[in-house]
Amino acid sequence: MADSDEDRDARQLPASERKLRQARERGQVPRSREAPHAAALLAMMLGLAFYGPAFAERSMALARGMLRFDPATAHDPLRAGELAGTTALQALLAVLPLLVLPLLAACAAILAVGGRVLSSHPVTPDVKRISPLAGIRRLFSVESVIDILKLAALASLVGLVGAWFVADGITRFAGYMSMSLTSALSGVAVDLRGGLLAACAVVVLAALVDAPVQVWRHQVRMRMSHQEARKEMRESDGDPLLKARIRERQRSISRGRMLEAVPRADVVVTNPTHFAVALKYDDAAGAAPRVVAKGADLLAARIREVAEQAGVPLLESPPLARALYRHVPIDQEIPATLYAAVAQVLAWVYQLRQHRAGRGAMPSDPGIELPAGLDPRGAES
């Protein structure tokens, strides 16, 4: 029992949908023993209230028929057998509503507490279930003790109600002996109905308490420890560490491919230290310039390093670098709002190439200005 208490203390997380679904597939759902008992008793009382008079009339008719002496039937075994079979069938049909209605009510109460479950797991042979040690542990577990105390309390209450019923009506019961049979049966029926109603009220009250308690106990049994939750997460979504390594590997491959495109860029616009964006313009395609690489901090430094090694011009323009980094994804064309600014950059690149070829002067800083709202820092301020 101590082990189970320690295990219960470790389970503090509510059960996941996956665990509840697996438990239902194994037939582990909340069940209340008192709910079907109460439903069956209520159904029996309702059946007697509405069907009782008709049942009494049919029973009396059957009794009169069985007590009637027929010489022809008595001397013919075949007719006697047919009469017995017919009488038994009529008796079964007479009592059938009083048997079926409580059965249906009990089934409905079972489904109301735990729902419908179709599983062969509870009846599958299991060595653990027939283990004497496991049986002793279940016998002395907390739940078994609670169930025994609950049954004892319910039996005591029903016994007290029965004792009160007998003590309260003992005088009337003695008076029935001096009455006619019809009057005595009518009085007994009234007294029995009152006693059954009192006993039924006790059982119904027990069911109203027991059903939510069983649902709560099932939720407690299904609770998960942090280790179980992590294990289920790994089984459902994969190992988080492995997924993190995969994502890091994908980012590394993406960075490698992006850095491979830097030497083919026309210019790298820098912040100068925090951001770096590489632009490529294809005259033959006639499309707008594209961002082939971009990065911040360490990646920006790596882009600048690769660009310097490949001879790609570096242009320091913090507002434009911030705007390109924020608004343009990798391998996408720049938006129309940045056409004018990037056109100044490309003009500066063309002049720089002419200077390097000895056909022009060193170009000055183009002094790029952006439309309002494109610079993230300007928008934040």
Sequence stretches where pLDDT stays below 50 over 5 or more residues: none
Number of domains: 2
Helix-and-strand structural type: mainly alpha
Name the helix and strand elements from N-terminus to C-terminus, one letter apiece. HHHHHHHHHHEEEHEHEHH
Strand content: 5-15%
How large is the radius of gyration? Answer: 44 Å
Number of helices, where a helix is a run of at least 4 consecutive DSSP H or I residues: 14
Main sheet overview? 5 strands, mixed
Distance between the termini: 65 Å
Please state how the strands of the largest beta sheet are arranged side by side.
4-1-2-3-5
Could you give a short description of this structure?
With 381 residues, the protein is mainly α.
Question: Describe it for me?
Answer:
The chain is mostly helical. It has 2 domains: 193 residues, no CATH class; 139 residues, secretion proteins EscU (name from scop, 3-Layer(aba) Sandwich), CATH 3.40.1690.10. 67% of the residues lie in helices and 6% in strands. It has 14 helices and 5 strands. It has a 5-stranded mixed sheet with strand order 4-1-2-3-5, with helices on both faces. Helix 3 packs antiparallel against helix 5. The longest helix has 41 residues. The relative contact order is 0.09.
